[in-house]
Amino acid sequence: MPITLVQSTTGTGNLTLNGVTSGNTLVAFQSSHRPNSSTTAIAVPTDTNGTFVGGIAGVGATFNAGTAVSITGIFYEVNAAAGTHTVTFEANNSNNKTLCEFSGMNIADVLDVSANARISNSDITSQVTGTTGTTTQNDELVVISLSLAATVGSADVGYTNPVSGFTNLNVVPNDASDIATYHAFKIVSVMGTQSATYNWTSHETSMAAHAAVAAFKGLQSVNTQIPIASLWPILVAC
Description:
Oligomer: single chain
Order of helices and strands: EEEEEEEEEEEEEEEEH
Largest sheet: 6 strands, antiparallel
Radius of gyration: 20 Å
């Protein structure tokens, strides 16, 4: 069964998916601006109809003299129950979230590899997600998430869009009155390390970016063909 995006929704508060199919996998993204220390990761969201676990939720990057934090997280829920799922996220000053349903995922051992990286208080125009270890199978879902913040900011940071090879889920270019956000995914069919680089044009001296990547295992195809060599004694007997 191929990996398929079934549905997704975005917003700044709690998110709901209706009509989720039993056994599918939910993936949640959160990009936030925190007015406090960067020493803790974003909390795992809660679900009215299941349980999320952490995929990748590293420590964020500080800006504005270290008093505020740009932070992102990726979370997942396997073998989802059928029906409606309302997901509650950690509350922060600025929040952009995405909630997705994917079919064709491995429910026994879905998270394969992940990484995250950050830059603090720098005049920057790019941010890498970090590079994962090598994926352990061919068919995998790769998701990426970015939070970008600045002391003053811009209504449009000027993202290079799309990120090469990825399909957009949620793109918010405003880091002036919002948190600049970029959530995306791709499906890969060969093993290898996974990473992505976000690029933009707007910059100032006090900025912070935090990006993450996670790769999730799909269901492996089973070869049901019978090798011709194994049929040879039967063919000879006939």
